[in-house]
Amino acid sequence: MRILLTGASGYIGKRLVRRLIEQKYEVICAVRDLDRISLPDSIINKVSFLEIDFLKPPDLDTLPKDIDGAFYLIHSMSQSIKNFSDLEAEAARNFRDYMNLTRVEHVVYLSGIVNSEELSKHLQSRKNVENSLAEGNYNYTVLRAGIIVGSGSASFEIIRDLTEKMPLMLAPKWALTKSQPIAVRNVTEFLSMIIFEEKCYNQRYDIGGPDILTYKDMLLQYAEVRGLKRKVISIPIMSTRLSSYWLFFVTAVSYKLAANLVDSMKVEVVGKENNLADQFGIELIPYKQAIGMAFSRIEQNYVVSTWKDSMISGRLSKDVHEFIQVPQFGVYRDVQEKKIINPETVLNRIWSIGGETGWYYATWIWNIRGILDKLSGGIGIRRGRTNLHEIHAGDALDFWRVLLADKKKRRLLLYAEMRLPGEAWLEFSIKEDDTLRQVATYRPKGVLGRWYWYMLMPFHFFIFKGMANRIVRS
Asked: Residue 16 contacts by C-beta under 8 Å, 6 or more apart in sequence?
């Protein structure tokens, strides 16, 4: 049986593909950009790939028709505050038109719980997508989930940021809104088991964990699991806009995502009861256990996927391959070349840069730059990195995006996603004569862009030189 998996590079998709392979399905991973496939070789060798952007009308004549099942895991909430619902509707229509030309028997969509009479823009958009997909010439099933808890999920990282950093929290009124969180493991279990299940054709199910909690409860229970003493005081005066800025500055989420999340947090997200878990023999994981499992993954350095590695978590909105060719003209460059004694050690240091490891020299200056970026409405430096030692094209790396990570060719290329009056690349490569070549390239935009480079030139000289020296130090 052939299954098309959309959103294969996303948070849920990267986890679901493993289960589908274990179930012996033939999986076609639909991705927007083949240059940013961040799956391990053990997975890549067992699936095929299809490059397609459903925000554009697909070339239906060139797409495979022999598809038996499909998962629709495409969301656009982080891309816009105002028109993300239009983007989601367009993508759903294009996907439906494609499916209507295939032999597909069953389409599964992961949506959000929509039981409240007054829905947020985010949840109303999810419901509209459900209705659009249901108009196709195939069987469909909708699974509606609330907050998904797992290492790397946006909800988990927000709760983690707030609780770890703030002993006393003045939380808005929405902190008392009830929700039904669900462990990411349970989500992938439901998804993988429901495909081709005829009893579930043309049905919509709510899926949630065994606990119904307020957002305040979730913060305090997280603190309990982590052994932290925290106090949360609810106040009725914080507006939606103010709440969005609060999440933006305290956590690693973008302002667009923060605004859409806050809009949804005012709506109660509690699922309607059903027997789906019993039908599939799924043991629902309690909230505190899900938090503990997430930290077990983090401590083992085994985070499979994270929302921050989604391209829409940063500034780079175009395809990765458009930026891989670093410009040579009309740019400023800082080039450092250092002889290497132990190439393997140096390569491992390059592959571990950023995140908890830091930038090897004057990391405190990088942190200040991250704070200034956050204050100016940028992403800041809090995204860190998914894995301490592994890195893939498309990954987030502090306020950089990984464009290319080829360990065999000993080359790493980063693109800056901080706010700049121009564009910047940072490249590390080890040449055949065992020389580290570190190149910072900056393409200014206008007079302000040139002024920015010259103003920071003294800092660049010491930072880039010091970083290269530390990387090659034996």
From this structure: 5, 71, 73, 188, 191, 192
Return the DSSP state at 139. Answer: E
Say if CB 276 and CB 205 are below 8 A apart. yes
For residue 348, give the 3-state DSSP assignment: helix
Q: What single DSSP character describes residue 80? A: -
Using DSSP bridges, classify how beta strands 435-444 and 422-430 pair: parallel, antiparallel or unpaired: antiparallel
State whether the Cα torsion 205-107-312-391 is positive or negative.
positive
Range with the poorest average pLDDT among 16-25, 318-327, 435-444:
318-327
Per DSSP, 382 falls in state T
Q: Which two tokens stand for residue 399?
A: 């306020």
CA angle 297, 285, 268 (to 5 degrees): 110
Q: 148-149 and 231-234: which strand pairing?
A: unpaired
β pairing state of 411-416 and 422-430: antiparallel
What's the pLDDT score for residue 53? 85
Per-residue pLDDT of 18-45, as tens digits, reads 899 999 999 999 888 776 666 767 788 8
> What pLDDT score was predicted for residue 324?
63
Contact 435, 340 (CB under 8 A): yes
User: What pLDDT is attached to residue 237?
Assistant: 64
Looking at residue 306, its pLDDT comes to 46
What SS3 state is found at 52?
coil
CA triple 198-202-203, angle to 5 deg: 95
Which domains can be identified in the chain, with CATH numbers? Answer: 2-309 (3.40.50.720), 314-472 (3.30.530)
